[in-house]
What we know:
A hairpin with a 3-residue loop joins strand 1 (14-15) and strand 2. By secondary structure, this protein is an alpha+beta fold. The protein is built from five helices and eleven strands, in the order ββαββαβββαβββααβ.
Amino acid sequence: xxxxxxxxxxxxxxxxxxxxxxRLTVAYDGTGFHGFAAQPGQTTVGGTxxxxxxxxxxxxxxxxxxxxxxxxxxxxxxxxxxDLAPARGRLDLEALVRSCNAMLAxxxxxxxxAVAPVGFDARRSAVSRRYRYSVLNSxxxxxxxxxxxxxxxxxxxxxxxxxxxxxLLGEHDFSTFCRRHPDGGSLVRRVFDASWTRxxxxxxxxxxxxFEIEAGAFCHQMVRSLVxxxxxxxxxxxxxxDMAAIIRATDxxxxxxxxxxxxxxxxxxxx
Length: 271
């Protein structure tokens, strides 16, 4: 199997070694994967995707992603780059997408492939990332949402949760909601947007609450910890007016337990 041929070839700027840097937009169901980053002895999204690409191009591939998602976390708009060696100066990206999807779908799907501009880096070139967290707020579980939404039986006050998201905007030290870096690195992050919405009324959607947050970068477990705290606010265990003080505390004990990983999705990466 090869992705090189005469049909609709794609050429682009070369990276060192004569390879072409390719940008892939990837969606995946994180269920059953031990996160994105390749790890020896573990089934990961990045490792599985790299193996598929290697089978197509015939050489070893190193992937760089925009965000290393944790175990069980999903993605709709993950972006990765890889440097691929074209044959006779031609690279058939449509064949690459077809071949990878034939091997990986539906758990992993390459939505789009394109030659990247010179200097593009999936992680370092990103301006912001947007995550979406889904909560099924219903007395009854939904088997079709079991792997993509956190089922919360208690009635939730959506307005209080919306109010609690307002203090997140701007630049803050998010130590309250993040695991400390082993090297003591900064946990200051800038949040551009944060909001809760209710589903559009489709099949079961009226019971789905979605939190979306966009920031320049995120620290480990930040979104899940924010959601866990805001759901407790929706339950009435905390007050929306407490959120600013919880942020200022820079104390992990001030936040609630992180929401389950399976409700989280890397929705979009902005460049």
